[in-house]
Prior knowledge:
15% helix
Amino acid sequence: MSLNYNYYDPPEEWDGRYIHFGDDFDRNKFETIRNQVGMPKPYGGFWASRYSRDGLQWRDFIKEKRGIELKMGNSFKFPLKKGANIVEITCSKDLEALPKAPTDKCTQLKWVCLDFEKMLADGVDAIEVRGIANDKKLYFDLYSWDCDSILIMNPDIIDYSELDRMYDLISLIPVADP
């Protein structure tokens, strides 16, 4: 984990885009992050998965666990702006350094409740969880995250110039050999 992880040039196996299933992105519908008492997920934000084949992605999770095949036409892909401040969590130990949300003293939580509001105020733009399917402790610490995903807390890190289905359509056009 890196608390000052800067969005980087992605490795070859990943083109740097994330994928969201559901409605097209509407900046006006973005809800500000708020802690949810006693829960490891916040209210608000924007969820997506890496558009790659490594790790358990949202589409795979839905198909495997719920038997539903998500249609690619009901999705869009987008990259993040360079310099986005992303906290990357790959194991339970990574959670130790992150701020925790206040909880009711009577509640004995078995999972970790991060203070998303504090992280956003401290300049964290997004939280990316990777390897959750392979780490049972991480899966239970972040109960309900379900699969590798990114929670975008600051919508200004989305590269809107690339938020366009045309990228995918253009990539399907055959190129004539010279």
